[in-house]
What does this fold into?
Amino acid sequence: MGISSIGHASAANSGDGAVGHSSVVGWGKAMIGVAAVMLMPDSADAQPATSADDLPQVRVTAPKRQAKKRTAHRAPVRAAPAPVAAQPSNVQVNPIVGDGHGVTGYQAPAQAGISRLPVPLANTPQTVNVVTQQVIQEQRLLSMEDALRTVPGITFSAGEGGQQGDSPIVRGFAARGDMFRDGIRDPGWYTRDLFSADRVEVFKGPSGFAFGRGSTGGAINTVSKLPQATDFVDGTVSGVTSGGYRAEVDANGKQGNLSGRIAAMYQDIPTESRDHVYAKRWGVAPSFKAEFTPDTRAILSYVYQGEDSVPDYGRPYLPAPTYSSATGALTNPGYYGTGAATPPVPAPRNVWYGVASGPLADRVLTDTHIGTLRFEHDFDKDLKISNATRYVAVDRMARPTAPRSLGDSAGTPFPTPFPPAFTNYPVDQMTVGRQHFETVTDNTLLINQTDLTGKFWTGGWEHTFATGVEAARETRYQIRANYCTQTTPACRTSVWDPVDTSFGGPNTGFGLPNSTVSTNYAVYGFDQVKLNEYFELLGSIRYDNFHSDYTNLAAVPPASQQLSRTDDMVSWRVGGVFHPTHSSSIYAAYGVSYNPAAEFQTLSDATNNAANTLLPPEKNTTLEVGAKADVLNGKLTLSGAVFRIEKTNLRIPVDPVLNTALVLGGLARVDGIELGAAGKLTDQWSLFAGYSYLDSKIVNTTDLSQLGRQLPNTPPHNFTLWTAYDLTPQWTVGGGVTYAASTFVNPTNTSYVPEYWKLDLMTSYKVTKDSLLQLNIYNVTDELYFAQYYQGHAVPAAGRTAMLTYRYHFAPPPPVADYPVKAARYVSK
It folds into this structure.
């Protein structure tokens, strides 16, 4: 798990020299120490070099909390990070073993990758899960979804007609609108690849003050790969047993006050045990940094990612029972005839119901562009300002097939409600409809953020503060074409043995478009006061003015074609932190956030629509109490939290039978526990684990078929573990397990996905000090489980898959002239 990591700066690296400078190693330990000193970054970067002996797979040296008095260390002590760093410096000698910020191993860095959160993660009163670069590399995680699967309490909604791309659900609440990159909103509908990411951070709990609208269960932040202080080139090539491959390169160079970095990727990987499904992606991410003075710098970065893949909408559920929304009584017993909830149809894992070929074949085409210009200035060590401007453009064409409307062997859809005569109807004789459609969506975002962070003192109290403003304009344009319907005889096929068809239905062209233009203006302030070495108090507040204009040319009557809504939202958080020792903290925090009607860029004048223009935002409150501690001399970080999330004005129907209008009168609640561990148990044994317990309930609603039910996509139990052990300095073995309990997929709890255990294994061998050969085997037991799901369908995960990876790192030795005078004299002797 990317556990609730206490963010501490890593202690001095355990190796003797600087990464990648092979010629230095042969000069002896004394010379290596000199090289390590010389390779320490300058004051603007303030992060350490990593040891050459750690290439290409470092075993972490644990971070330690900075105390008033430090004991002596055998290894050189790294420079402490700047106390008010608005964005951690991107310094890493070898990206193979770190995350681009001087961080190696499983433990999180001292600071978050978001300028508006200036206090160390150890003192942040909420659960923060961090998936570090070493976790990404050891497990060979390729996408955002892969990374978030290592974090407990997160599931994924399956694609549907209204949305595609990454759709995480955090602690029971949708978070697809809560994706960020370097603290700036990332709204696009696309599958986020990790080739340009150093790490992934998940901020759970009360976060609306930092992120704005949404963030009910949490917010997800990608920390980008940006220029560093050293020269290197890293290459990675992988082959997959399903017949695919992936190649990556990451190169960095510095000359004077200029530095640049470029990451690139290409992959073409079929999904094991899923007919016709593959993921083809490519991307490039150049970035440049100019240090005008030691206190002033600018960073220009760009990320391009393309995709040409086949979408997978999985399989439908067996006919579910139904309950009366007026009385809550069972009205139809469903497929089993007993009222029992139903799973996905038990068809063979490989079956896929899409259109395999022809002009309307299933396809996803995506082009994503993210350009960012950031300026930073340090007034002094206790005051810093940063300004960032970003433009995002995501163009997406999705042409999927959704499996709908189960029927009998003659191709006739089962009637609704499900007739008792068809109870336990043989699955191998069923048919299913192919709902085939095409959606073209173009998103843009232009945003500017200014953050001022620093410290000041009032009497003996130390204040760490952040304040800032944000202005954003987001657009969305969408058109849709409907080809096959699930009831059209030519669009139906066998559930058990579907026909590979090129018939996608008649191409009748696109319907009329809909579009949205949204603006958001925000101002925020944050202050965390250190009263003494034991107690800290904090308060934060954010005001958002969110306005949306929505145009739907297909709406009838014409008066419904132009809609708008403005919401003024005040999010806030208060809390306290107690430090029983220098290496531990106990915290409590309470926060408020909001979900406006136009959160996902649509509006409606239909009074029974959740995006109704008459509905104010839903209000979310979160209370969390937790603890974080470094143990085993700082090698291992432990964390735990108990929390309650409530959506206090859930949108519910006024009349559940007629369902003609919604009102903000419901209550949804999640009570939970989360535990985590990250770091090293011994010098050779590393651990990354987490567990979440989620007790979810719809506490108040007029719809009695939902009253008292669990929230969809909220497994009561979720456990993740990854561990690695160094058998020798060259040879490492590792493995991990993931468990998720049986989970309901709809608010009436009439369909579900079963529980599952998944086992992954890894072994790596350091061929040379600069290269590594690694074998990963995923889903070793070939478990059939569902990677994505919602009430319409569930998507089976890949079967047993192996990936063989070779990594190589090259870093030229620095010029002799750059060494200290004593080093030069030593060489001359």
In short: Residues 560 and 605 are 7 Å apart (CA to CA).
